[in-house]
Each structure stands twice: as structure tokens, then as C-alpha cells.
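pasting for the record
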Amino acid sequence: MTSVSANDIEFRSVTKLYGSVTAVSDINLAVPKGAFVALLGPSGCGKTTCLRMIGGFEQPSDGTILIDGREMNGVPPYRRPVNMVFQHYALFPHFDVEQNVAYGLKQARPKLAAAEISARAREALEMVRLGGFEKRRIHEMSGGQQQRVALARAIVNKPSVLLLDEPLAALDKKLRTAMQIELQTLQRELGITFVLVTHDQEEALSMSDMVCVMNAGRIVQMAKPQEIYDRPADLFVADFVGKTNRIAATVEAGGATLRLSNGTALAARSGLKPGAATVALRPEAIELVRQSNGSGSQLTGTVTHRIFLGSTAEYQINVDGLGDFLVTADRRSVQESDLVEPGERVVLNFDPGKVHVFPA
């Protein structure tokens, strides 16, 4: 029967307890069909528990999980339209590549013909660009190739949902970037729902359609990557996703003025509640100059450290009365020279509209 659900995955008031410990608390989540969703958060936030409940490796203590409109509570993993790629791949070292990919097909009931199993395994290997590697042994494959074997094994059964448990964590940076592109391409080609668990913010923002930020067993914010970064729901999201400078401040009576702890006054956006607040300002939202140009809001300070990153440089600057700031500067944007030296006095310009204000 064809499902009428618009979502591949739904959590309805799901809670998961391990004895007296609450791993996941009253989560409501809807993942649309064909979406690429990242569950992002620090260790212990509940993201892996959510993934394991989708896969059937854990059962909710309370609430309901649905896949493709069907309730999954109590349904074992092998009866769910889901496959999982584990962080360490879990490949069989005594099998060759094709045998690894075909393993799930051989367990299917009713039993499939050997010719069909081989054809489908080879088709899956072609999808992950490993055609011609069928008879290689696993130890003869690089880390990236083993990752793709694991992906081929996961997609060969044509699941509705593919679960990815930090699958790129063991790869070096260059290979990880290449595999991020491979995964995005594969997801578009297959058109199935991908759910990725990661603690890597860059990975979540660059790969997914939607990011679900979790903390302490709850969903803090779920939105498109750009919205998560540009309009964080609270200070935790602003702090965890990307880099940010935090400044103690006060929203003054009337809510029109934001006064930083060193006395600097900024024009505040409307609707802020008067009282103690914390300001979050992204490092790249700050313009670093040697002399005041009279634009925007300005702070002054002394460069204490510089990290050269090629096209950009990161500076730690001790701002008068506020402490250390992190500033990311395009080398070409700095007046007179493309690098500022530690010990130099500098001016920090920024648009007050780029400031995020949260209750203290």
C-alpha cells in the first residue's frame, strides 16, 4: 500500500530513559521525504540515541516513532525500511567487496537468485563509483573506498531511510571534504532520506538541507543551515554552531539602547526586554582596520595573536574593557598591509544589525 505520509520519519513526544538517566526528553520531530537532515550537538546530547531509535536498535520509553507513516515501536531493525552506515563501517574482512555489499541481499526472504544478487551488488558499487573493485579484499581498500563499500552495502536493499552515524569521523580532512560531496551527490541521485549524526558543525552546515541542533536530550532549533548560523535561537546555538564572541551587556529601559560592559552604547533592535543580556558577534562580522574610518560601531584593542590561514587570518585581540575577541579577516581587507602584527593597536568596526542579543 502506498504511504500518504509527507514525512519519512516522525517522533511524537518521544522520551528515552536509561534507568534514572534521561537521554532524550519529549522530542517532536518531522523529517520530510527525500530530505538530508543532520542531528548536530555535543557528546551526550541524545543525537545518537535518536538515530538508534530510528534504526530499531533502541526502543522509546515513551512516545511514538513512525517511518513512512507506519508506527515502528517494537519493530526490530531487520523489519524496518532503514539501513545504517556505522562510524567504523563494520565491514567483513574475510569477504571481498562484492560479498560485503551482497550480504544483506542474501538474507532477504523470499530468497533472491544468485544472478540478481550479483547484479544488484554491482549496480550499488557503480552508484558509489567503485565499479571494477568487486573482487578486492577489504584490507586492500583505502579509508575512503571502505566508506563507499559501506554505503553500497547500505543502499543495495533500497531503504526508505539511510542513517549515517558520524561516517566521516575516521577520515583525514581532505578525504572528508571529498566524501561530503560524494554523499550529497549520492543522496540527490537516490532521492531517499538521509539522517546524519555529527558533532562537526561544518559537516552539518555544508551537507544537509535541515540541521537539528540538540542539547541535553532536547531539540533546541531545527532549520535550514543558513538560518541556524545567521539567526540562532539561543546562546547555546550561537556558541556551538560556528565561532562567536560573547559580550556581557545591558538592554536599557525602553529597549532602544544596548550598553556593553565597557560602556559602549549600541542602537538596539526593537522588541528587546530591558535587563542583563549577552551579546553574540561572529568573528567574520567584524572589520579590522588600523585607523578609524568613522563607519559602524567601533571598539579598540591590541592584537595578541595571529593565525595565518592563507586567504584569511584569525586574530585574537584584547579589546579595551571587554577582554579577548576573535576576528576573522580577509587579508586584502586590512588597510596598508595584508597582515596585522601582534602588538599593533587596531580598530574593530561592526554593524549593530549583525549583533545577536540573548537574555543573560
